[in-house]
Structure formats: C-alpha cells, structure tokens
C-alpha cells in the first residue's frame, strides 16, 4: 500500500487500521511501508496519537476476551496474532492471517468481528466488552458509566469538556464547571449538559437521550433547530430531525440501569433488538422493514440476552430465531 493509496477520506482510526493490515502483508516492501508509516504519523498530531493507541492496543490484545468458548478462544488468538506487527512476531502474524481467514469461513462471517469491534471502538479512550459495565471518575470529577460494548473518546481542555460516544450507551453525572461546557458528541448531533444526570444511547440509526435530572440542549448535526430536554423526558434523533419528546419515569430508568434491565413501554421491536445486540456475544441480525411495526412493552434482562430473546418469543409466537452460528442469530417472522 503506497502512501498515496491510503484512503485519506476515512476517519483517522480506520487509516491506522489500514496501516496495520498493510504492514502484515508479505507481498509488500516492508522497509518502504515502515518509512511511509512513519511519514504518515508525522503528518499530523492526531495520526501519531492514533498510531500510539493502536500500538498500545495490540500489545494488550490478548486480554480483550476470556469468553471460555473454545472456538471463540481460537478465533481471538488468531486475531491477536494477525494484528501484531512487531518484527518479533511477524512470522506468527502471517500464519495467523491465513488461519483467521479459514476460521471466518468455518465459524462465522469475518465481517462480524469488524462490526463488533471496528477501529474507532478499539482506539477509544474508554471501552467495554460484551456484557461488561464500567464506572469512571473523569478528571473534572464527573461520573461516567459505560454499558455493554460501549466506547468513548475524551477531549478535555481549558475551554471545553467533550466526550465522543463512539458506540453504545453511557450514563453521565456531570460535575459543575461554569467555565467549561460539558458536551457529548455523536454522529447525529451534540448534547450539551445544562445540569447533571442523563443517559445517551447511540446506534448506527439514531441517538437517544434520557433525562434523569435537570436538562440538556441538543443540536443536530445537519439541522439548525436545537431542542431542550428536561428531567423526566426522552427524545430520539438522527442528524436531520427529532422524534417527538416522550415522558418517562426517571427513577425507573435509573433502577433499570443499576439492575441491568431494559424497561420498554411501547417501543419498536427493532430498537429492542438493536439494544440486545450489544449484550450478545456475536450479532443479532433482523429484517428491520419486516419487524418495524411491532411495538413492545416489557422488562428484559440485559445481562442475559438469550433469556430476553426467549421472553420476546413467548410474547410474540409469530417470531422465529434462527441460530446461524453460535455467534450469529437472525430474528424474523415465522415462514
């Protein structure tokens, strides 16, 4: 991969991942690539930062998963070896790339891995694995909780406290600092804290804000009309528009977070499956168009996604779940 062939339109995290793939390729002139990789790092401070994160990540990649399933262990070991690019382990890397390709065919589609753990997720400052929750105290004293398979990047400076939600969901209890606004950024818009406590859920399709205390102001990425959300309200939006504001019981949502349960009241089944997908080892796929009209009210255990799916089946016998592999389930209407 010549330097000019690198896709500069991609996010920096993906560019860093491209370099990892290129440096693991036997067919390339490694000396030239190493020189070009160094030039890429020197071209911008953010490039160097992404490269440092990737190198630190690869040094610890063995610890990402301890799943217990033998096939998953084999897959993760192969992925670990295939990604490392140090001279000491290059021979093992090349062999593992071939092994990983074979396992991808035999065990599950290879794209499942990159969908669950895309480069931006792997390079985030804070992240959780499937079924993991974390609690952090930020440098300003704010409290940040991450749900399953979630990732955030932090940028705190003298004038701003910014948290980029890469994927997943967070609960934030914001510390007061009048001189530095606290904002949460997703691809769909910016959420500025006007008080203390709120939840944000981000998926590919939309962002949802659930207000537990005080208020936030939301500015859409591609629209000019901001909206203010108060305690006891939630709203869903994409980069162009808001859905209607809905009333919620803030205490029930807090209890649901604390007990790792999903409380839904007349929520689209597709939104529920998207949420359960983050707690499933592998992927839950579904036909969005086929299922989008189905609305559900339920209390579902997030730490037991298979049990949650069984509860959905009991409520809607017209649903069926096909287990394609241990890591891939497909939900649809019965034939």
TrEMBL record:
Q: Specify the FecR N-terminal domain's residue ranges.
A: 14-57
Superkingdom assignment: Bacteria
Claim: Iron is one of the keywords in the record: no
One GO MF term attached to the UniProt entry? sigma factor antagonist activity
- Give UniProt keywords alphabetically: Membrane, Transmembrane, Transmembrane helix
Task: State the Pfam families in the record.
Answer: DUF4880, FecR
> Which residue ranges does UniProt annotate as crossing the membrane?
96-117
Residues in domain FecR protein? 125-216
Protein name per UniProt = Transmembrane sensor
